[in-house]
Design goal:
Layout lengths: L1 H36 L3 H15 L2 H13 L5 H14 L1 H11 L4 H16 L6 H24 L16 H18 L2 H14 L4 H23 L4 H23 L1 H16 L4 H20 L3 H11 L19 H29 L4 H22 L6 H25 L3 H7 L1 H14 L6 H34 L5 H32 L1
Amino acid sequence: MLHVIGGIGLFLLGMNMLTDGLKELAGGLLKKWLNRFTGGRVRSILSGALITALIQSSSATTILTIGFVSAGLLTFMQSIGVIIGANIGTTSTSWIVSLIGFKVDLQAMSLPFIGGGILLTFAPGRYKPYGTVVAGFGLLFLGIEFLQAGMNGLENMFMFNSISGETFPHKLLLILIGLVMTVVMQSSSAAIATTLTMLHAGAIGFEQTAFLVIGQTIGTTVTAVLAAIGASIPAKRTALTHVVFNIITGGIAFLIAPLLLTLTVTIGTSLNGEFDATLGIAIFHTLFKIIGALLFLPFLRPFANLVLKMVPDKGNALTSYLDPNVATVPSVAIDAAYKTLVKMMRELSGAIVLLMETKRANGIYEQKILHVEEAIATTRRFLDSIQSTNPELHHKHLAVVHALDHIERLTRVLKDEQKEKAVQLQEKLISEWYGVLLHNESSMGHEEKIVEFASSLAETSATIADERRERRHRYFERSVKNETELETSVEKVEALLWVDRLAYHYWRTIARMAEYVK
């Protein structure tokens, strides 16, 4: 029994290492790949299936998808296709275990992978993720080896002989057991690997295994629900998509199980010459996931609209992209943070335009500033949870942190008591700044234009700084010549300094954002 527990632990550890390493290595590439290949419904499903087969975790694919939706790389409609595809991709575990796990000497194969992988983790920074992947791969198969060893002679311990899988109550009981296995192990892949090992050892029969697998598929919904508690709106929508798809797919598989089992035996026999039960489960698992996807496919649009109604937008719209789970994938997380900066700057630009047009700070103006202040605090906490070891990501991460710092300083300027007097006393400078802002503000959402915007702001900020130096001297000289009161001169100088700070911090924010896209 200890071998079984240890085998499950090694499998989970290996799967986590494999997933973490691949996410770090492939996060940026997957982002570009998904953005390119998720144009239609079928392509979205295929993308989700292939990515999950690669990283061996539908949960990781789900987290990546949340980040891509948050960063504007995917629409919610496309994300539904990716999630459905991810559920198909989880069947890859069944295929790997049935085709390799019981046909080779796993211990002899896994130990070199573990040793070599661990050594690679001590190599320079960029090689560490490769070591994590290799070691994780080895631990995955070593876990299966321990499971196999532990199952031998334990056939009677699992008490499945009395659960035939032929009567309705027994089928429901098997589904419930499969569900509990996934919830306890927190991984449908680990649950399926354990179940296949039990089947291979003769502890359970083929039909019993099929109903356990249906339960394990439904069991992943519990993990999704737990992950969605306290999460962002995109995460909750994604979790709901995952839950509905798996419950409906599991329900369909249960209803048409006799037909699916017969079809599985036919396909398995034609592929292998004789029926292999473990391979049959991989076929069965894949069949009902594909059937579920095909049934969902025509209804993706109405389903997406239903989910949007069930989980509407709420809270601070500026931070809707920032989900804590996304922080585990640095390339996606930093993208989400950058998109949040764009939102904040648009909100501040709206506040600035409002102030310049009305020449007063009304309630709408103050609300906009408050929203940005709340977003700054949330974004800081989010950025604190990101670890960017890759040099390119480190550069982007640093640019975002600098930009956020200038946004905070910009909000302080916009809250300064001098703002209304500055707009009134320095109308010419304000007018110049206003013109540049209106002409270029839309550039923030376009990476190819933001560099030009930063250059334009740099020139305007430099002009305002020159004006500030020249006018400051002139104002005080007039007061010395008794041409104006000193208090009036001081007011005008304070107004000058306010405009200068406004221009400077706005420019520096956009300049840092331009560094991000270079």
